[in-house]
């Protein structure tokens, strides 16, 4: 009998075999993601058909056939319509946007005074960017500067009347300037006001609670237009005869109150998510109501609902476009107003102007939503149990 | 014993100022005084202002002659009708556009939402692009885009675009064939209602039987047969009382048929597209909220992918989907007030006109607010009933 030596033991791991050819590389990806089954293949063909139908048209319209510069409507109209383009031409009329760009950004703000909104924008950016980057220290000071000092400074810079700056009436403000200032003030007012309303709704005092519930549910039940109507038509009736205040300010009040009701519900969600032990812990330390809320509960609750708060901001940013109904000309309002300019009346003007406005709105909203997703991921680690 | 007696007494607080009860009472009294004070001040100012402007308060103005025309009138209305009737027309228009928008938005939203979870990379990306575009631009802009960017640059009536089923598309709107119901068509409606009732009854009995004996009954196909078959039968019995009114092209305009005006179309399309993006996200979150173990467990029980979706995933996903879906429906209804920007005569637009003509600002805004509140409450009440039926029944 021959003896076998079975004592050999493998000492190192076998290296993993590479995946079979059919499971890796581009072909496997295509097989898995595009042509997995008969139905999948049909869907892919359908998808390709949709893309092949839309994408060339969009690219042709927005880039290849587009007219970028020009003095007036002739560059964007066909020969039959009195222009220079060949028959059957369709393309974006960016020349229109180009010519009106200053108006789209500043409205009818006097040209020689436009350095003022630009300065405000620079200040805003200089304060906002460090606020958004988590690593930059001194958030408290930054927040005070951004939400308290900046609005005051901006107000005097924009409306003038002090330090020898000429007065610029609010009806002359317009465009992106109005959109941004409306939404910024809306944000700066609605967050604290919404927090107070949310606290009121959870208060133990029945009358305070009732008032907060009525306000929140009432405002959430009606459209913003109605609130703006209210602010522009009814508010003057509420004041003593002779007392009037600026239409822009009335719109600000309307937008802020509207946003505050939505913000209150978001903050309430955060308050409800804080375990009862936190409240009781604060009580047992002998903290008063405002100390308990300000030091223990709200910091945790607000942190928890940051994504929802940002979503409310996005909604409000989009909603500011509604002020054009009470004839305040924000970005969309100015674009809409300029569409009827006879000098630029072409079949492509409306599309081009509106696509430009949509792109600007989209940039801001998309940026905000990406930032909120980033914060959500960053804060996710802290609260998992 | 003595020490226990002292413990049972109210703990002394040192000063009344530090007693939370007293503080609460004081604070609430202050709030009430402030509230009534400002209400009194506002009411006084309003009365002052109204007398100064010679406007009589009250709702008598609703009986006055309106004197303005409305372009879309679901019920009979002329400029000789009353303000009240004008407001009713506006309310009906709001309801019509909101209901149509809700149905379309739900269909598009579910398709796109499911598409975002598809195995297919291309479909997933297309749906993502759709959602990211529409979620991030204002609804008003979408409405303007449809109105002045798409519908206004369509060819004039003489060069209308021909579409299937005898419909036409041009600057003045979308012309579709109108069905003209002749005599005896009430029979069809009755048959339809009877069929619905019978289908409901069959579904109930079938469920009872399945609970008792385990035998299944093809409820779906029976219902389809009933709901389609009975009205068709009634249609044949009544002697086919249906003719079609096709839109016809004449020299300058289209005549006949049913015209959907560009105002309605752009509002409807914009609300549907915009809200669908949000509904898609809700549906996606709902389906992803059902844990994978549920699908795998159903597979282990031997269910095929169709029944897994229908019996296991969708019922659980609906539970997550319905509450946020309700608030999207409410948002759509509220956003329909944007109609005023393009001149579709919805409630806000007609109330705005009435308010401008009569100067009855307080009453006008009040009517608007109450109407929207009621619409919101009705929608959420209906959705709450649906939600209660869907909710998890726990033992």
What do you see in this structure?
The complex is a heterodimer of chains A (385) and B (395). Chain A has helices spanning 25-33, 38-64, 94-106, 115-132, 139-159, 175-201, 206-221, 224-238, 247-273, 276-284, 289-304, 306-319, 331-338, 349-380. Helix content of chain A is 65%, strand content 0%. By secondary structure, chain A is an all-alpha fold. The mean pLDDT of chain A is 84. Chain A is built from 14 helices and no strands. The radius of gyration of chain A is 29 Å and the shape is flat. Chain B is α+β, with helices and mostly antiparallel strands and 395 residues long. In chain B, 66% of the residues lie in helices and 7% in strands. Chain B has helices at residues 2-8, 20-53, 83-115, 121-135, 139-151, 186-213, 219-237, 262-289, 292-300, 305-335, 347-358, 361-390, and strands at 161-163, 167-170, 173-176, 178-181, 242-245, 248-249, 254-255, 258-260. In chain B, the strands form three sheets. Chain B has a four-stranded antiparallel β-sheet with strand order 1-2-3-8. A two-stranded antiparallel ribbon of chain B has the order 4-5. In chain B, helix 6 runs antiparallel to helix 7 and helix 9 (292-300) runs antiparallel to helix 10. The two termini of chain B are 49 Å apart. In chain B, 31% of the residues are buried.
CATH class of the domain at 169-380 in chain A: Mainly Alpha
Number of helices of chain B: 12
Strand content of chain B: 5-15%
Could you say what the CATH architecture of the domain at 169-380 in chain A is?
Answer: Orthogonal Bundle
Query: Strand portion of chain A, in percent?
Result: under 5%
Quick one: overall form of chain B? Answer: globular
SSE succession of chain A = HHHHHHHHHHHHHH
Instruction: Note the main sheet of chain A.
Output: none
Average pLDDT number of chain B: 83
N- to C-terminal distance of chain A? 65 Å
- According to CATH, the homologous superfamily of the domain at 83-155 and 262-390 in chain B is MetI-like
* Shape designation of chain A: flat
Regions with little confidence, pLDDT below 50 for 5+ residues of chain B: none
């Amino acid at each position: 009998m021959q003896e076998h030596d079975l004592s050999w033991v493998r000492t190192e791991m076998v290296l993993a075999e590479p995946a079979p050819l059919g499971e890796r590389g581009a072909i496997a990806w295509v097989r898995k993601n595009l042509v997995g089954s008969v139905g999948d293949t049909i869907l892919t063909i359908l998808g390709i058909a949709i893309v092949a139908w839309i994408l060339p048209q969009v690219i042709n319209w927005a880039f290849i056939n587009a007219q970028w510069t020009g003095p007036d409507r002739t560059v964007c109209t066909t020969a039959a319509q009195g222009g220079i383009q060949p028959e059957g031409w369709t393309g974006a009329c960016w020349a229109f946007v180009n010519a009106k760009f200053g108006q789209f950004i500043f409205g009818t703000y006097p040209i020689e005074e436009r350095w003022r909104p630009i300065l405000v924008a620079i200040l805003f950016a200089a304060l906002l960017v460090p606020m958004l980057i988590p690593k930059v220290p001194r958030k408290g000071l930054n927040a005070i500067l951004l939400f308290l000092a900046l609005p005051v400074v901006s107000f005097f810079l924009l409306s003038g009347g002090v330090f020898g700056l000429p007065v610029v009436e609010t009806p002359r403000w317009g465009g992106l300037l109005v959109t941004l200032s409306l939404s910024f003030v809306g944000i700066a007012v609605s967050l604290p006001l919404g927090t107070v309303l949310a606290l009121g709704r959870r208060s133990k005092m029945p009358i305070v609670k009732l008032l907060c519930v009525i306000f929140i549910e009432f405002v959430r039940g009606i459209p913003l237009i109605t609130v703006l109507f209210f602010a522009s038509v009814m508010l003057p009736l509420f004041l003593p005869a002779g007392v009037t205040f600026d239409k822009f300010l009335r719109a600000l009040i309307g937008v802020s109150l509207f946003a505050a009701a939505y913000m209150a519900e978001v903050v309430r969600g955060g308050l409800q998510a804080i375990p009862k032990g936190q409240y009781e812990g604060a009580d047992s330390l002998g903290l008063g109501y405002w100390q308990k809320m300000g030091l223990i509960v709200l910091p945790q609750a607000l942190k928890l609902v940051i994504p929802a708060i940002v979503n409310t901001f996005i909604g409000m940013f989009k909603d500011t476009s509604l002020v054009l109904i009470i004839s305040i000309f924000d970005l969309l309002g100015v674009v809409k107003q300029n569409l009827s300019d006879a000098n630029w009346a072409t079949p492509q003007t409306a599309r081009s102007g509106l696509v430009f406005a949509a792109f600007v709105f989209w940039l801001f909203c998309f940026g905000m939503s990406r930032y909120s997703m980033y914060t959500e991921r960053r804060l996710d680690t802290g609260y998992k149990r | 014993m003595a020490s226990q007696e002292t413990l049972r007494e109210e703990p002394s607080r040192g000063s009344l100022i530090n007693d939370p009860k007293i503080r609460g009472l004081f604070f609430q009294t202050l709030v009430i005084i402030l509230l009534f004070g400002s209400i009194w001040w506002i009411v006084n100012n309003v009365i002052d202002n109204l007398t100064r402007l010679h406007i009589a308060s009250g709702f008598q103005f609703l009986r006055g002659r309106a004197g303005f025309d409305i372009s879309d009138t679901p019920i009979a209305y002329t400029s000789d009708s009353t303000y009240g009737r004008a407001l009713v027309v506006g309310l009906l228009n709001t309801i019509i556009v909101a209901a149509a928008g809700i149905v379309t938005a739900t269909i598009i939203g579910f398709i796109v939402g499911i598409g975002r979870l598809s195995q297919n990379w291309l479909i997933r990306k297309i749906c993502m692009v759709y959602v990211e575009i529409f979620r991030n631009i204002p609804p008003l802009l979408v409405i303007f885009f449809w109105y002045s960017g798409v519908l206004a640059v369509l060819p004039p009536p003489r060069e209308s675009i021909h579409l299937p089923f005898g419909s036409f598309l041009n600057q003045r709107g979308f012309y579709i064939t109108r069905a003209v119901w002749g005599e005896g068509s009430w029979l069809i409606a009755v048959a339809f209602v009877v069929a619905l009732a019978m289908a409901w009854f069959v579904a109930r009995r079938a469920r009872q039987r399945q609970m008792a004996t385990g035998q299944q009954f093809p409820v779906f196909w029976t219902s389809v047969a009933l709901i389609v078959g009975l009205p068709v039968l009634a249609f044949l019995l009544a002697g086919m009382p249906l003719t079609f009114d096709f839109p016809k092209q004449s020299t300058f305009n289209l005549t006949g048929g049913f015209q959907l005006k560009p105002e309605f179309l752009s509002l409807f399309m914009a609300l549907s597209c915009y809200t669908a993006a949000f509904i898609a996200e809700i549906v996606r979150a709902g389906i992803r909220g059902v844990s994978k173990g549920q699908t795998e467990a159903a597979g282990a029980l031997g269910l095929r992918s169709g029944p897994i979706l229908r019996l296991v995933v969708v019922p659980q996903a609906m539970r997550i989907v319905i509450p946020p879906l309700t608030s999207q429906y409410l948002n759509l209804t509220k956003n329909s007030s944007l109609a005023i920007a393009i001149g579709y005569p919805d409630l806000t637009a007609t109330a705005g006109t009435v308010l401008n003509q009569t100067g009855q600002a307080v009453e006008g805004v009040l009517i608007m607010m109450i109407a929207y509140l009621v619409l919101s409450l009705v929608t959420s009440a209906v959705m709450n009933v649906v939600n209660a039926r869907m909710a998890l029944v726990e033992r």
